[in-house]
Amino acid sequence: MRIVVLAGGIGGARFLRGLKSAVPDADITVIGNTGDDIHLFGLKVCPDLDTVMYTLGGGINEEQGWGRTDESFTVKEELAAYGVGPEWFGLGDRDFATHIVRTQMISAGYPLSAVTEALCDRWQPGVRLLPMSDDRVETHVAVTLDGERRVVHFQEYWVRLRASVDAEAVVPVGAEQAKPAPGVLEAIAAADVILFPPSNPVVSVGTILAVPGIREAVAAAPAPVVGLSPIVGGAPVRGMADKVLAAVGVDATAAAVALHYGGDLLDGWLVDTADADAVAEVEAAGIACRAVPLMMTDVEATAAMARAALDLAGAGR
Ligand code: FO1
């Protein structure tokens, strides 16, 4: 079975771990969000690609959900001693090595997709991990700080500001000019199932779909498309989905997110049992909907979610 998953960071990575456990023999292609990417200290940092790679490759810091296990921060401390920041972004020593390799290869002319493949040679994530695009896309967020309207990088909004102020607009800068990375459209067209994990519908899956050609390919794919709600009981399970959904005028409810993706993209949608009353509204939009437990408390619970998504995909065909 060929499965394509459009994934963000922590939620996407944990879902993928459950999916791999549910269907160990499946051929899984992950299209990773690169809108969270940021250039720091002269290095290209790809948080979502790395989170997927480290999580599936056994190198993730489990408590945080991002960054390396057994990490130290000597380089960051030394940079701070030179007055070089930003101090609010926690890049560890082991993680630095990944970014040095990536940046070195990009400087030598390799596209991000080839670099990601090279990094995955070490981590063996057991999936084919493709960036959504080799072109630079950076999500920016418009906010008002101290009465002044400003635009900040998504990482500054999330990590420094902790999404403590409203997101007034979310713009995937560069997305309109970006091309899907090699293999992305082919994988979507050849998929037996396409899944949207419980990743952020705006800044993760939404950014991937904003690359011209990807939304169209998903909508035209012969495979059923099934998503899992990142909103449970009216709030995001983790992250700031409520803030960025508000910026695009969508309520933070399981039903509203399904309708935001729309019946032209989704064939099926899973909501948590806490949101069982959303099923009728989603089905009225022509999207098959089931209520199942959606908390990724451990790999087995996550595998059960993945099985439910695959069952719904089968039911929809
Ligand atoms: N998230 C944080 O909350 N604080 C950090 O200092 C931080 C550093 C960081 C470094 C590398 C990396 O790959 C991810 C990192 N993240 C950090 C996670 C990241 O900001 C977001 O969770 C994702 O971009 C959202 O998908």
Largest sheet: 7 strands, parallel
Measured by DSSP, the beta-strand proportion falls in 15-25%
Helix content: 25-40%
CATH architecture annotation of one domain:
3-Layer(aba) Sandwich
Overall pLDDT: 97
Using the coordinates above, name the CATH class of one domain.
Alpha Beta
Distance between the termini: 14 Å
Tally of individual helices: 13
Radius of gyration: 19 Å
CATH superfamily of one domain: CofD-like domains
- So what's the overall shape? globular
Low-confidence stretches: none
- Class of secondary structure makeup: alpha/beta
CATH topology of one domain: Rossmann fold
The H/E string reads: EHEEEHHHHEEEHEHEHHEEEHHEHEH
Give every kind of bound small molecule, once each: ligand FO1
Structure summary, number of beta strands: 14
Biggest sheet strand order reads: 5-2-1-9-10-13-14
Subunit structure: Homodimer.
GO molecular function, one term: LPPG:FO 2-phospho-L-lactate transferase activity
Keywords: Magnesium, Transferase
Function: Catalyzes the transfer of the phosphoenolpyruvate moiety from enoylpyruvoyl-2-diphospho-5'-guanosine (EPPG) to 7,8-didemethyl-8-hydroxy-5-deazariboflavin (FO) with the formation of dehydro coenzyme F420-0 and GMP.
